[in-house]
Structure formats: C-alpha cells, structure tokens
Amino acid sequence: MSTGTVTVRTLQGGAAIATAVTLGHMINDAYGSMLTPLGPALHSKFGVSIAAITLLSSIFSLTSSVLQPLLGVIGERLGSRLMAAFGPVFTGLGLTLMGFMPWFGLLMLLVAVAGLGSGFFHPAGAAYVARSSPLDKRGLWASLFSAGGTAGMALGPVFASAGLQNLHWFGLIGLVIGVITYLITPDHQPTAKRLTLKAYLGIFRGPMVTLWGMAVLRSLASMGYNSMLPFIFLARGYGVREVAITLAVFAVASAAGGIVGGRVSDRIGRVPVLRSAILATLPLFALLIYSNPGQWWFYPLTFLVGAAVNASIPVGVVTAQEYAPGHVAVASSIMMGFSWGFAGLLVFLVGLLADATTPTIAALSAILLLLPSVYLAYKLPEPQAQRFS
Fold first, then answer.
1. Would you say 238 and 293 are in contact if contact means Cβ atoms under 8 Å apart?
2. Domain span at residue 151?
3. How many structural domains does the chain have?
4. What is the pLDDT averaged over residues 272-285?
5. Residues 176, 181, 187, 188: is their CA dihedral positive or negative?
6. Which candidate, 182, 146, 180, 151, places its Cα nearest to that of 337?
7. Are the beta carbons of 331 and 282 closer than 8 angstroms?
8. What are the CB-based long-range contacts (under 8 Å, 24+) for 19-23?
9. CA distances (Å), 92 to each of 130, 173, 174, 382, in order?
C-alpha cells in the first residue's frame, strides 16, 4: 500500500471528517448570526422600514430552517459532499456581500440564497458526523457538532462589528473551510436517493412526529424567554449590557449542556435524557424569570437553565437519526431546521401575549409549553443504536 493511499485514508478518518464539518457548522452559523446586529446599518444604507429589515430575518429563517427537510431530501439525492462542503460558502457569499448590493430587492434575493446554503449544509453536516462517529459515542459527537454552531453564533456579532463594507474578507474563511471539507469528506451517495418523494415524506410519522412536536415546544419555550428578556429587564431597570451578558451565559451553557447530555445519552439511553432534561428545567426556568441580574445567583442559575434546557437538543437529533437510520440527513433536518424554524414562526404569539398582558407573563406562559413537551417525551420509544447507511 502506497504512502499516498495511507495518507488519504487517514485524512478521511472519522475524527477528521467530524472536525471539518464542525468547523463548517461554526462558520456557517457565524454568518447567519450577523444578520440581526447588522440591522441598523442595513436600515441606514437602504432607507427602508424596520419591518422590511426584520423581513430579511424571516426570509433567511424560511430558506435555512423551514425548508430544511426538503433540502435534506435534495441533498440525499445529489450526495452529501457538495452540500456539506459548499453550503457554508453560499451562506458566506450571501451575507458577507450585503454591503455591495445596489438595491433592497437584490439584497432580499441574496439573503434567500444564503439561507439555502445554510439549509443544505445542516442535514448533510449532521449526517457526516453521525456516520463517522463511533457507535458508543454518537451522542457526544453530535453534541460537539452542535456546540460548533453555538460557538459560531457567538462569533457572528464580532464579524458584524467590522461593518458592511469589510464583511467580504470574512467570506474567505468559509471558502477555505469549504475546500478543506471537500478534500476530507468521502463522496456519499446513499441508495435512498432513488426513493420517491412520497417515501421520504413517510419518514415523518410515528415517533418522529412525536419527537418533532416535543422539540418545537421546547424550542418555542426557549425562544419565548429570549425574546421577552430585553423587555423584562427594561421594566426592572436593567439595560442592554445585562441582556447581552445573560444571553452570552445562556449560549455558553447551551453548548456545555449539549455536550454533557449527548455523552450521558450514550450511556443511559436517548429517551431518559430527553425526559429528564426538560422536566428538570421547568421549576428552574420559572425561578429564573422572577430573578434579576442584581441577585448573586442569577447568572449561575442562567447557566444551569441554559445547560438543562439545551441538553436535549443534540440528543433529539441523534434520536431522530436512529429512528430513520437509512435517511440520517432528512431526519437531522427535521430536528435541526424544521423544528426551530416552525417554532420561530410561532414565537410572535408570545409577543402578542406580552402586548395583552406583560412580558413576564408571556415568558412564563412560554415556559409552560415544556409541560406538554415532557408529556410527548414520555411517549417516545427508545431507538435502537445501529450503523447508518
């Protein structure tokens, strides 16, 4: 066997593949998280309304999240390699070139294309991690992949601070990572690509629907709290600084909780972690809503709640993959994009409730959605760990 062959096989080892797509996840989500902090700059440049600026986020959410199951199907038919490697490149091109668009309509199209890049990447990247991971550490590897995205969301506002006219330089990072990912990942063309669309739709049934419903309610509870947090703090005399610190602590805790939850699920099973993580969060989340940054326990409690409520996210992805082992990309997209995207479409209801009552009551009502989420978690069967095709 030649040295070149050995080198190629080494590069295509599971750890190298997982590392490459995790870096892709980080840079992809860094690009996606630039859109919100750049809102004021886009508002000033194009002279449009604030509602038009928020529409950009809705467009990105639609193409990157809500359409993700369909993009996962397309990815399985075309092969995962291009999707995993160059999905973040399209996301980067779309969002780092925003400052060069001459009119707002073209900007909307560019954001939509960027969302498609993200939507193609997530199911393909998660599938590569699932196929590359050792059977007894599948939950851990999925959680590390998830943590890469969380790290990227923290990095995005740093990129945005460079200003619209300098963003294009950050697009080169995604291009380099895309090329590396393409060279490292093997070309995966599953036999499932020959199935009909009706057969793919058949994946979304039985325990998969229950798991998805649990994830939507959990996501809506978390999104509802985060969206109400600035208004709650404002009413209590706190400002942007406290909001930023709280959300940063919550994000770091989410990554840590996901890693712990993923590893524990490898040892005791997926469903016990899904049930216990959500159930344990309920009283802690309620206490957090009625706490303030001026109290010594607030930030430790924020970390604990963030870790607990998000410990089930990568576990849910792996559970879906094990429910549909022949279609791990589509299963991943159902849990990663479709659940978050669907919850994002519903989060405005929390805002309506806040207008009718108070932000505190709206946040508490959102947290109560964890109760039916727990109920759905208790209806889930434990999936069987098996090799993915």
1. yes
2. 3-192
3. 2
4. 88
5. negative
6. 146
7. no
8. 20/177, 20/180, 20/181, 20/184, 20/185, 21/84, 21/124, 21/125, 21/128, 21/129, 21/145, 21/181, 21/185, 22/125, 22/129, 22/144, 22/145, 22/148, 23/148, 23/177, 23/180, 23/181
9. 25, 9, 6, 38
How many residues appear in the chain? 389
Residue 105 has pLDDT above 70, yes or no: yes
Question: Which residue is associated with the tokens 């995005």?
Answer: 156
Q: Are 342 and 361 in contact (CB under 8 A)?
A: no
* Cβ-based neighbours of 383, under 8 Å, separated by 6 or more: 207, 270, 271, 319, 322, 323
Q: Which helix (H) or strand (E) holds 289?
A: helix 270-289
* CA 281 to chain centroid: 20
Residue reference for tokens 């809506």: 220
Query: Cα torsion at 71, 72, 75, 80 (round to 10°)?
Result: 140
52 and 131 housed in the same domain: yes
Q: Is residue 88 located within the same domain as residue 165?
A: yes
3-state percent helix, strand, coil for the chain, nearest multiple of 5: 80, 0, 20
Residues 350-369: pLDDT tens digits?
A: 888 888 888 899 889 989 99
pTM score above 0.90:
no
| pLDDT value at 379 more than 70 | yes
* Contacts (Cβ under 8 Å, ≥6 apart) of 132: 14, 15, 17, 18, 141
Examine residue 198 and state whether it is found in any structural domain, yes or no.
no
Two structure tokens written together for 33: 């998280």
Collapsing DSSP states into helix, strand and coil, what is residue 279?
helix
Share of the chain above pLDDT 70, in %: 90
